[in-house]
Every structure is written in structure tokens, then in C-alpha cells.
Write a structure and sequence with these properties.
254 residues, alpha/beta, Arc Repressor Mutant, subunit A, seven-stranded parallel sheet, three-stranded antiparallel sheet, 23% strand, globular
């Protein structure tokens, strides 16, 4: 499904709060309980929300991510705002590695008017988007293509990334926890992301507010490996202090 504006806003509210009651959502949007229940039913059937007695929450699991098509729509406006902020910070004539993720795909769309970019990616969606920019050279990593999201992973992909040293590595994550770890669900994807971090002069993380305090099984890195964080709302506690201690610049687009 493609959520309507109210449903998209409902998703953002639940993502920010973690969970909300049906009554609280009805009051927040000034609609009837029946309207909220109808929205919640549609969003739950699409896999974007999980229902429990009297309320809803964002689906969460430490071992499995939300399906790719659902993640494309989840917090879409926030991702687009983050993408615009990232693109505004990317100078013309620089080199980048862009990894797997729906937020990084939004960033690719915002880079279509940039000039002189050289982009390395393990994301076939990013490659397809940026191939429409005649002033952008795109290099696609070898490896195994995941059918669910067209991401490329595996040892060949890691070895490919190790050939480069780029100006900016643009990465996404599935979750960040209060022990300052950045996490994801797929160990093979994490291995590629680690190689991107190692071979980038600056590492920029693009993550919307739903990623904070979200558990995932595989540790990717710690906050101190980042240079900049782009997000759509001020990070919740304890992240402001963690980011300050790690020396990470935080850019809030919301």
C-alpha cells in the first residue's frame, strides 16, 4: 500500500513514540476511533505496524528486518528530508561509496543534479537512479545480488570496496543502541559496511528517528567511527551525549 498523508503521519508518530494507543492516535489527529482503527488495520495488513490490544507499535525484531517494500514507504517524508540535507552537504566533484538502504536510495535521487561525482555502490537501485545523471560515474560492486532489495553482498563485494579510498562513505543502519553500537540484521551486509567505513575519509550516517534505540542482531560499528549523522529529529536520550563524546556532527533536517 501507499499510505495517505494522515497514515504516513501516523506511522511517524508511532515510530517516534515506539508504541501508541488507539485513543491517543484519535486525539492526536482529531478523528474518530473508527477512523484510526481503519488506518491501523490497513497499515498492519501491509506489515508497517504491529497491533496489540488497544494500540499499535512499529514491528521490531533483533533477527529480521521489515520487508523492503514496506521500508520504502515507512517514514518516507523523513527520509526525503534527510536526503535533501545530505545532498546539500555533498560537494560537486567528490567520490562516494553509497551502500544498501531505502534512505540511501532517496539520497541518490537528490544527487541527480550534482556534477563530477564518482560513486561506488553495492546497491543496484542506487546505480540505476544515478545512471540518469550524465555527470556521475557509477561503479557497481561484484558479488551476490539479494533478490529482496537488489543489494550486493559477499566476499567479492568486500574485496571490491577495499580497492578504493573515497571522500565520503554514505551508510544506513537498521538500529542504534544506547551502548553506542550501530547495528544491522545481515552479517554479510555488515561486512560490506565495515569495509566502506575503513575505506572512506569521512563516514556519514543517514538514519531517521525510528532507528534510535532499535535492536538488531549484528554489530556494525560504534558511533566514534562516524563523522556526521543526518537525521530528521533530535536524537533521544542518551544519544546527544554519546554523539558529543564521539565527536559526531549531528544534522537535523526535521
Amino acid at each position: 500500500m501507499t499510505p495517505n498523508p494522515r497514515q504516513s503521519d501516523l506511522l511517524r508518530q508511532v515510530s517516534s513514540a515506539g508504541s501508541m494507543s488507539v485513543e491517543a492516535l484519535a486525539e492526536r489527529f482529531g478523528v474518530t476511533l473508527q477512523t484510526v482503527r481503519r488506518d491501523v488495520t490497513l497499515l498492519a495488513e501491509a506489515g508497517l505496524l504491529t497491533r496489540f490490544h488497544g494500540g499499535v507499535r512499529v514491528p521490531s525484531s533483533t533477527v529480521e528486518n521489515i520487508a523492503y517494500r514496506q521500508r520504502q514507504q515507512l517514514n518516507l517524508q523523513a527520509k526525503q528530508g534527510i536526503a535533501r540535507a545530505v545532498a546539500a552537504a555533498v560537494p560537486n566533484g567528490c567520490s562516494l561509496i553509497i551502500n544498501i538502504g531505502t534512505t540511501t536510495e532517496c539520497i541518490a535521487r537528490e544527487l541527480l543534479r550534482h556534477k563530477g561525482l564518482r560513486v561506488v555502490t553495492n546497491n543496484l537501485n542506487v546505480a540505476a537512479i544515478l545512471s540518469d545523471n550524465p555527470d556521475c560515474e557509477v561503479m557497481v560492486a561484484g558479488g551476490t545480488v539479494r533478490t529482496r532489495d537488489r543489494g550486493i553482498v559477499g566476499e567479492v563485494t568486500v574485496d571490491f570496496m577495499r580497492q578504493f579510498k573515497v571522500d565520503i562513505g554514505l551508510i544506513g543502519i537498521s538500529g542504534g543502541e544506547a551502548d553506542s553500537t550501530l547495528r544491522d540484521f545481515d552479517v554479510h551486509e555488515v561486512e560490506v559496511s565495515r569495509a566502506i567505513i575503513e575505506h572512506s575519509r569521512e563516514v556519514w550516517l543517514a538514519a531517521d528517528r525510528s532507528k534510535f534505540n532499535r535492536p538488531a542482531m549484528v554489530e556494525l560499528a560504534h558511533l566514534n567511527r562516524l563523522d556526521r549523522l543526518f537525521t530528521d529529529a533530535a536524537p533521544p536520550e542518551p544519544f546527544p551525549a554519546l554523539l558529543a563524546d564521539a565527536g559526531v556532527r549531528c544534522d537535523v533536517s526535521g
